[in-house]
Amino acid sequence: MILIVDDTPENLISLKKVLERHNFEVDTASSGEEALKKVLKNEYVLIILDVQMPGMDGFEVAEAISGYSKAKETAIIFLSAANTELKFITKGYSSGGLDYITKPVDMGVLLLKVKTFYRIYEQSRKLIEIQKALLDEIEFRKMAERKKDEFISIASHELKTPLTSVKGYVQLLGRSVDKGDIPTVKKHLAKAQVQLEKLNELIADLLDISKIESGKLKFNKKYFVLDALLDGVLEVIHQANPTFNIIRKGNAPQEIYADEMRIEQVIVNFLTNAIKYSPGTNEIEVNVKVGEGQLYLGVRDFGIGIAPELQKNVFEKFYRVEETAIHFQGLGIGLYISAEIINRHGGEVGVKSKPGEGSEFYFTLPLNAVPEAD
Ligand code: ADP
Questions:
Q1: Cβ neighbours for 15, distance < 8 A, ≥ 6 positions apart
Q2: Which domains occur in the chain, in start order?
Q3: Mean pLDDT value across the chain
Q4: Of 201, 276, 286, 320, best ligand 1 pocket probe by most atoms within 8 Å of the beta carbon
Q5: Which of 79-93, 220-234, 291-305 has the lowest mean pLDDT?
C-alpha cells in the first residue's frame, strides 16, 4: 500500500486517483502527525511525502519514520519545491530508499518511480523469503542430524544390553556344564535364548527402518483369516506374560488379503507396548470389529496413557514420549513401522488415550482388498 501525505486536499485527491487508476492501493494523511500514526499501524511499501507542510514538515516525518522498525523496508518519495532541499536531511534515511520529485508533479515521472520502488520492494521481499527458507532448511538438517546421532546412541545401548546378558549367561553356562548341573544349564540356556530373541527383534526393526527408507519394504500378501492369526499371537503373548489376562472381544472370521506376517508384527507391537507401558496392571482387551467394508482391531490397555497433545506424534519415526522414555526401554520405531505396514495395506492406524487411564492403539484394514492384476 502507498501512503500519500500532503496538506493540500486537491493534491491528495488527484494523486490518489492517478495511482488507483494504475491499480495501486492508496491511503492518505493530511499532516505529518497523522502520517506517523498511520505508519505505526499499517505497513506501507512507499510513502509519497510533501516536504512543505505546517506543523511537522516532510523531512521531520522522514527522520521520525527512520526510527520505526515497522517502516524498515518502506521507501519515500519527497514532493519538494526545489531538489536542493533534499540535502537537508541530516539523519540518513538508510532503509527502503529515497527519491524526490519537484513540484508541480509530473505524473508520468511519479508513476515510473512508484513502479520502480514497487519492483525493488517485491524483489527484496522475495530475497528475504528465500533467505528464510534457506535458514529453515539448514535448521531442519541440523535437527535431522541431531536426531540421527541420538538414535544411534540409543540403538547401540539397546543392542548392547541383551548382548551383555547373553555373554553373562554363556559364561554361567560354561560353569554349569563343567559341574554337570543340567537343570541350571537348561535355565541359563532359556535365559540366553530370551535375550537373543530380543536382539533378533531389535535388528529386524532396524532392518525394517532401512527398508522403509529405501522403498524396499515388500509385502507377501495372501488370503488368511484374522481370527486364526489372533489365536496364535495371543497364545504366544500370554505364554511370555502369564500374569496378563488378555480379553478378546469380537471376531473377524472372514478371509482378508494381506501380508500375514506383517499384520502379526503390528498386533505383536501393539500388545507388547500395551504390556510395557502398563506397569502394575494385569488386563488387556483386544477389540475386533467388522463392518462397513473394513476390519478394526484395537489393543486396549489400562496403563500410563498419553497426553492428548502428544498422541499425534507417537507414530513418527524415533518419537518417544519424553517424560516417560527414561522408565521404559525402546527405540521409538515400532509404531512407525506398524503405521507404514498398515498404510501400505490401505488401512489406518490411530490411538485413543487418556493419561493415567490407558490407551487403545488400533488399525483398520479394508475388507475388499484383492490380488492386483499383473
Ligand atoms: P518404543 O516403545 O520402542 O519407544 P514405539 O514406536 O513402539 O517405540 O512407541 C513410541 C512411543 O509411543 C513410546 O516410546 C511411548 O512413549 C508411546 N507409547 C506406545 N505405546 C504406548 C502405550 N500402550 N501406552 C502409552 N504410551 C505408549
A1: 4, 6, 26, 48, 105, 110
A2: 2-105 (3.40.50.2300), 144-214 (1.10.287.130), 221-366 (3.30.565.10)
A3: 90
A4: 320
A5: 79-93
